[in-house]
Amino acid sequence: MNRYSVFSLIREGLRGHSGWKPVWRDAEPKAAYDCVIIGGGGHGLATAYYLAKLHGMTNIAVVEKGWLGGGNSGRNTTIIRSNYLYDESAAIYNHALHLWEGLSRELNFNIMMSHRGVINLAHDDGEMRQLKRRVEANRLNGVDAEWLDAKQVKEFCPILNASPDIRHPVLGGTLQRRGGVNRHDAVCWGYARAADDLGVDIIQQCEVTDIRVEAGAVVGLETTRGSIRTPKVASVAAGHTSVIASMVGLRLPIESHPLQALVSEPIKPIHPCVVMSNAIHVYCSQSDKGELVIGAGIDPYISYTQRGSLDIIEHQMAALVELFPMFSRLRMMRQWGGIVDVCPDASPIISKTPVKGFYVNGGWGTGGWKATPGSGHVFAHTIAKDDPHPIAAPFAIDRFHSGRLVAEHGAAAVAH
Amino acid sequence: MFVIPCPYCGERDQSEFTYAGEAHIARPEWDDAMTDEQWAEFVFMRSNPKGVYAERWVHTAGCGKFFNVIRNTATDEILAVYEIGSEPPKVAARLPATPSGEALGSGNDAVKVVASHEEVRS
After folding, report:
1. Taking the model in full, what pTM does it have?
2. ipTM exceeds 0.85, yes or no
3. Phi, then psi, of A412 in degrees rounded to 5
4. Which residues of chain A neighbour B50 with C-beta distances below 8 Å?
5. Which of B100, B102, B104, B106 to mutate to test the interface with A (most CBs of A within 10 A)?
6. Residue A104 phi/psi, 5° resolution?
7. What's the DSSP call for residue A114?
8. A275-303: per-residue pLDDT in tens?
9. CB proximity B41 to A under 8 Å
10. For strand A60-63 and strand A255-264, is the pairing parallel, antiparallel, or unpaired?
11. Of the candidates B61, B47, B51, which has an alpha carbon nearest to the alpha carbon of residue B8?
12. Beta strand pairing status for A118-122 and A274-277?
């Protein structure tokens, strides 16, 4: 792998950038692998990277039906935070945040990680109590969290409408300074480049059509580019997790919904942080290109169409203009939907399954991006050792009949 | 956005309706022998198919009545609407050529769904 540095940049600059090479091979599927990962998004590529790097499993492949990072990795709002209420969630999201902090250096790829701070607004007394409780819970778990009163919120984000006259006035908010945003494509490409360098085959435009199971154990895959023998299959298919699981006859508590987001036309830097509001329900940040990136909640029905209803967009635009009246004349440039796999307790499934050799990482719902490196790291351990990583253990499938749910609906600092 | 033909009021925008989950999930009869797994199956496990799917809607901003809909979740086409308590009718749906519902190599654009074969749901 050609390492990137200021010197490589100068050298290429002097010879007209003619020496850059593709950063991963366009691999042909081999007849057999030790493990095949289904899904070439951030989580899948991270899983492959950590399997190869930390567990020595280099005879593995990532199969992706489209292109790398073209699913939910390319459709989220890239908000990074770890201020979850419950211990289990704080553990995994904070594990991810630690990995984010060193990821550009580790991958030798600039993921444009910007720790600009994430504010969660409180608009009524009940919400203030809830968010203050979460600040204390976060601190006990080693997650940085601060309570800001209305004046401090306004100081941190001067463009916010702090008027007491609005329908839901801002009474305060929590701040996680280590939170922020990053660049989704760079994360996928960085992981793909590093995994490829360790020998992982990355196979795009290769869709899994069936998983072969014999005597209760995975023996291989059928794909649109031929059969592959493998004793281990890891599904990291986000919205299509149920579709993949149905290939081995496994039923999951997951339902797939459209989640829409949109960006405005690019403007000069104006928005200093990430602002999230539960009560009015919108979240907004500004990308390095200058576009406002805006998201809110899921469409209520199940769909795989990657498009949603306009009333959801109208609602989040109304919320945006309420909080940021100065954005009222901005034009929105692009709008899209991703298919998110929602669990009943709004927590992910990172688990072994009753089918030997079939592993599931899914159910991240609306909040998977922030967990990408942590998810891949603990899932790789789970696959390699055939035993859950301690951080992944609470997210096993059996919690749905043992009753040990990690019920982050409403607790996770965002409305679902 | 799609339009739902309410069996009582006629065609209305989907935003007038509230989604009420998968249809035909019967609460199991109470039985001391029931296992936690069986109870979890009723409470949590869902079919979540990419394709023909029976679901419930309620016309919140209209008549307020519940009814069942069969919809193709790969395309959002509504294939049948029928009363609560009745059996799902047989429908024919355009199903995608691949499990994901996308033409090969198309990436993720569901608009490119290709018709492959007809499925009859009984």
Report:
1. 0.93
2. yes
3. -85, 15
4. 240, 242-243, 256, 304
5. B100
6. -55, -45
7. B
8. 999 888 999 999 999 999 999 899 999 99
9. yes
10. unpaired
11. B61
12. parallel
